[in-house]
From TrEMBL:
Lineage: Bacteria, Pseudomonadati, Pseudomonadota, Betaproteobacteria, Burkholderiales
PANTHER family hit by this protein: CALCIUM DODECIN
InterPro entries the record matches: Dodecin, Dodecin-like, Dodecin-like_sf, Dodecin_bact
Native source organism of the sequence: Advenella faeciporci
Protein name from the UniProt record: Dodecin domain-containing protein
Transmembrane domains' residue ranges: none
Length: 68
């Protein structure tokens, strides 16, 4: 096993459907331009409320990836 160096970035994904979809949306978008994504950590969950109901989920995550 070789030693690795990782970099972290922070992203916020959103979804009208669920927290999981918000995370998936953020990871899918990051995957378009970042190689070697290895893990994520949820740092904050919040939402937008309209007429007493959740209208939109927003989830902030830290994403770690291996540097080449």
């Amino acid at each position: 096993m070789s030693d690795h160096v990782y970099k972290q970035i922070e992203l916020t994904g959103s979804s009208k459907t669920s927290i999981e979809d918000a995370v998936s949306n953020a990871l899918a978008k990051a995957h378009e331009t970042i190689r070697n994504i290895q893990w994520f950590t949820v740092t904050e969950t919040r939402g937008h409320v309209v007429e007493g109901k959740v209208a939109h989920w927003q989830v902030s995550i830290k994403v770690g990836f291996t540097l080449e």
